Amino acid sequence: MNKSPFTLSTLTQQANQLLSSSNPRFSDFSRLFEGFNQQKASELFNSILEEILLQKMHDKKPAYSDQIHLIATGDFNLTLNVIGQRENTDNTLCASEFDMMVINMLPETVAVPRYETSIRPSSVYNRPPPLKMLPLQELKPYTPTIFQAYKDIAVLDEATLQAPCLIIYSRPLASVTWVFDQVSLDPLALTDNSLQRSRILLAVRILGELGEQHHVDTLDSLSRSDFDYFVRWEAAESVYKLDEWRGTRLLQDHLVNDNNPEIAKAAKQTLAMLSDETHQAEESVHGLYN
């Protein structure tokens, strides 16, 4: 008697069953691919193509993209992607906010560059130490390889071969992450994982550079909001650029007592620096008349 084929539908059912069990862990999803091989991969690809054709007929639009989303449910978010397609041209690396499981669908081993970070989701706002470069990570055929959120950076685009891969992502463990210089391995900046918040951050920055004084009210309100701390700090910097007096008052009256320790610390350091600059200017003026 033949076993049931390994299809997208059965994989979805099994993932949902696992998610409904007591205290499931992301690594448990590897059990769904026990005994995974070329035949099962072929069965899965066939079911994926059938789903894409049905979607195309239903939506009446192309279903193709560089990364095809197949399942999105809780911590089991499955995509089909081709790795090893491009080089990293901006020389930066970004720590992933997701746990990630990669399954190489080629019948031969593929290797990817791998780096290690010391970021903890509970203290993601703290500046991390430089990355540590590790030996190439092998992706063996039809075998799940797990990369942990904020610990592992797998540079899939720079894989040694172009390879179709099933990639499973967890839910994000935090709303922000760090970008690193690929050459020096030093941390460069904290960035927002949310496209909406990243656009707000860009708008705040542009307004600080190109805006006028009557825009300060909006920026001042944003700096006192519940947005992530670096968005609020960017708004405060833009307030100061447009109106130094109001920016200083914002630092003195509000931000030094901010509930985020990073903002409170930065506000105190900025006020101290401004105080030193004022003192030095007064000494220079005094020197002119003596």
Describe this structure in words.
With 290 residues, the chain is of the alpha+beta class. Helices cover 38% and strands 22% of the residues. It is built from seven helices and eleven strands. It has helices at 8-19, 38-59, 195-210, 216-223, 229-242, 244-253, 261-288, and strands spanning 67-73, 76-83, 92-94, 100-104, 110-116, 132-139, 144-147, 152-154, 163-169, 176-181, 187-192. The strands form three sheets. A five-stranded antiparallel β-sheet has the order 1-2-9-4-7, with helices on one face. The protein has a three-stranded antiparallel β-sheet with strand order 3-10-11. Helix 3 packs parallel to helix 5, helix 4 (216-223) packs antiparallel against helix 5 and helix 5 packs antiparallel against helix 6. It is elongated, with a radius of gyration of 25 Å.
How do the strands and helices of this protein lay out in sequence?
Elements: H1 8-19, H2 38-59, E1 67-73, E2 76-83, E3 92-94, E4 100-104, E5 110-116, E6 132-139, E7 144-147, E8 152-154, E9 163-169, E10 176-181, E11 187-192, H3 195-210, H4 216-223, H5 229-242, H6 244-253, H7 261-288
Helix pairs in contact: 3-5, 4-5, 5-6
Characterize this entry briefly:
With 290 residues, the chain is an alpha+beta fold. The chain has helices at 8-19, 38-59, 195-210, 216-223, 229-242, 244-253, 261-288; strands at 67-73, 76-83, 92-94, 100-104, 110-116, 132-139, 144-147, 152-154, 163-169, 176-181, 187-192. The protein contains seven helices and eleven strands.
